[in-house]
Amino acid sequence: MDAKRPILTTRQGHPVTDNQSLRSVGERGPATLENYQFIEKITHFDRERIPERVVHARGTGAHGYFEAYGKVGKEPASKYSCARVLNETGVQTPIFVRFSTVIGGKESPETARDPRGFAIKFKTVEGNWDLVGNNLKVFFIRDAIKFPDMIHAFKPDPVSNRQEPWRFYDFIANHPESLHMVTWVKSPWGIPANYREMEGSGVNTYKLVNEQGVAHLVKFHFQPKQGVRNLTSAQAAEIQAKDVGHATADLYDAIERGDFPEWEFCVQIMTDGDHPELDFDPLDDTKRWPEDQFPLLPVGRIVLNRNPDNVHAETEQSAFGTGVLVRGIDFSDDKMLQGRTLSYSDTQRYRVGPNYLQLPINAPQEKVRAYTNQQGGQMAYFVDPTGDKHINYEPSLIGGLQEAPKPAREYHQWVEGHLGRYQTTRTADDYKQAGERYRTFEDWEREDLIANIGGDLKQCPEVIQLRMVWHLWHCDEDYGRRVAQFAGIDLEKAKALPPLPGKPAPHQRRSAPAYTSGKKEEAAGVQEPVGAK
């Protein structure tokens, strides 16, 4: 017996003298019901797995820090926000980042053509701030009520248990706002080479609010200092044949060898308001804010420098929510953001339990420990301090917790309108931005995009083929023509279709310029950074 090694015990702390055999009547049994050590061990094993996330199940994470520059571009950050995490320079705010794919299960390959999750938990001196985003700057839908439909369409068929292309394109064909995201996802940008060389974005529109109560619309973005690299379908297939977890291994190994990945944290700023001069709604998350009009302004950097000690305790039980904001960062009326704010935290209460915020990975940092009157629930292992153990309500004349002082000025948004169900009327960019993205791609990226969509459409019924070509032709004539050609679809028959019922007729159609930028021979390699610059 090695005196330096700790003794194995049960969960009750009882020393285990024999971990090789359960208790039985004689050598051959039977086993007895009072086998407490075995019962504790096997029943815990039966419950080792919590439900995997419905989306973003396949993921990996790392610890690090955020360091603010104290500026938004060249101006003081305090001009836009009173959030200390953005204003205080020289402070390293602890963070935990979880990267993920979206549609596949927990053991699915990381070479999947899929958006990538990029969720960050900032443990600030004013409490937690969660920024839950993706690698791409746009999304498929702009109204949260469509999210279950979208995920159902993208997940495996409930009968065949396979991801069927016709289900994906059946959904897309009825939602033209998805064309922009499809153009990104079906290009090489749909398969990032790894998590370190991948952009991040909050996707939704938020607001920054300063001490004077003045608000600005804001988009959050993360630009990798390692550069951006994406894969073609062929490159991804080659990697997947050897490794289904290459991106997890890449991140883990880089941190272990001290090659800490870093991103520039940037914002896009827009004055608060409707902005009727734009042909898209700035709250519409299927659209990008043009960077020539709304440039990326650096506000700080994030660095990942420590791997989790335990994947389950930290990465899998980490829980994020778009409603977790600090003072100085606020909600906009973005309908996707509003819906996600309910859905994300509700999911964590179901998946991990109502006391998920007591777990160290999710709890705020020690100096801002939570003080609430919330008690009970599954897996509560302490009661939040209240100042008086007898008083778990507020207000009280004799003790307990009290409200924080109100700020001198608060942000108040005037809200007025008729209650109803509305769709945005600014839909021109449903086609325009998708076409612009197609024309921005290098020629090898367009070739990969055409092959991916065209290959998928070959597996779809004609009614979906024709409508998708109709949509793509209205984005860009060359885009629609080449997909039709690749998939053997009658372009003229597709062009003759009427607009979708209840949808405005699209416009803004243009043709792509002649290819001049890409080089086919460079597309085969994965060593050089690739992607739109």
From TrEMBL:
PANTHER family: CATALASE, CATALASE-2
UniProt-listed SUPFAM superfamilies: Heme-dependent catalase-like (SSF56634)
Keyword list, A-Z: Heme, Hydrogen peroxide, Iron, Metal-binding, Oxidoreductase, Peroxidase
Swiss-Prot/TrEMBL cofactor(s): heme
Family in the record: Belongs to the catalase family.
InterPro entries, alphabetized: Catalase, Catalase_AS, Catalase_clade1/3, Catalase_core, Catalase_immune_responsive, Catalase_sf
Region described as Disordered: spans on this chain: 1-27, 496-533
Protein name per UniProt: Catalase
Compositionally biased region (Polar residues): 9-23
Biological role: Decomposes hydrogen peroxide into water and oxygen; serves to protect cells from the toxic effects of hydrogen peroxide.
Highest taxon of source: Bacteria
EC number(s) reported in the record: 1.11.1.6
Domain Catalase core: 9-402
